[in-house]
Design brief:
Length: 99
């Protein structure tokens, strides 16, 4: 694999994915889904947000190809499409942010 600095198209795609992850709620959703698949009501309850708000954020994550949705027992169940995002989350959680 060539370094990212030499892959303009790949860098642009990665930047779009990172932009989708750039909202605190979407980052939390991805963190939850990195542990287990979940339906929107479970995500809303865990985040303490209205279902409609969580649905809007899930839509953005779906459009960017970060999560997928399937129907199970009448519920829309969301899952991560890229399992390596867990590594990114581990890195973010380990960062020492100031401010």
């Amino acid at each position: 694999m060539r370094p990212l600095r030499k892959q303009t198209e790949h860098a642009a795609l990665a930047a779009a994915k990172m932009k989708a992850l750039g909202h605190p709620v979407r980052l939390q959703i991805v963190a939850i889904l990195s542990e287990a698949d979940a339906h929107v009501n479970a995500l809303a309850e865990e985040l303490g947000l209205p279902q409609s708000t969580v649905s809007q954020h899930l839509r953005i994550l779906r459009l960017e190809g970060l999560v997928d949705v399937v129907r199970r027992d009448g519920f829309a169940v969301y899952s991560l499409l890229e399992p390596r995002i867990k590594t990114l989350l581990t890195c973010i959680e380990g960062c020492q942010w100031s401010g």
